[in-house]
Design brief:
By secondary structure, this protein is an all-alpha fold. It is about 55% helix and about 5% strand.
Amino acid sequence: MTKNKRAKRQARERSNRTGERYVVARRRTTHGERYFEADCCANCLERLSDEVEGLYCSEQCSQMAETVRYWRRVARDGRIERPDVRDAVTTRIAHLLAGGYRKAARRLSTDLRRQVWERDGGRCASCGKPGAEIDHIAGDSPDLDNLQLLCADCHHAKTAERMSPANPQQRVTVDTLYATRVLPEVPALLCDDEQRWPREWSALKKARRQQLVEDLIDYGFDAEDLRGMTRAEMITALQDNLADAYDTGGWTEDDDSGYGPYSYFAHAMAKDD
């Protein structure tokens, strides 16, 4: 069997085993089970929109990769045997199955945290033990009346009480995640690598932004004008620039200058290529 046929067979076998798309399975087998591409989500490998600043297409994808790294880490250092760590893994998985944990909505200011601690006297509102964590009583509202101080045990118990048992499809999802991304010694994705990712993600994010800046400079933008802009602002500026050029007759549909609506650049920006 030729090397190419063997690679295709391995990709098909992986696709059948994991449920991944064939193209994803082929990339992972070809790249030695470690894959990252600058303009694709580090977790799901879907194309990132131009406006996305980071390396994930959604908060859920970011949390999934974070959960995989944590799960891999505690499985390898033995902490997975501790009941509190197993509970932490279970809680993270439950949040993923529910669509992700709403971190931004539940982020509290330092002043608000201080008010909760002072009002509750540093004690758990449920059992009276020393408090450890601030809990939202119901929903995501940051109102003081919706916050309470709980000890770790009471907080974990409340979280566990609200968890719904995973349905059969969700259990398959969790089993697949464990088999394909937690269990293998060599991380399937770069974002799964509990050692490399914390060291490299920032540089990868900067490199993706720098590539966009360099592309825009090539198309006539001034580097100083781009300084401090978000990706969304840079894309908007580009679109406005192209629209102005078209409206003022800078080029026509048949123009081959590289800036027209039918040019390669416009084609690439629309993600149609």
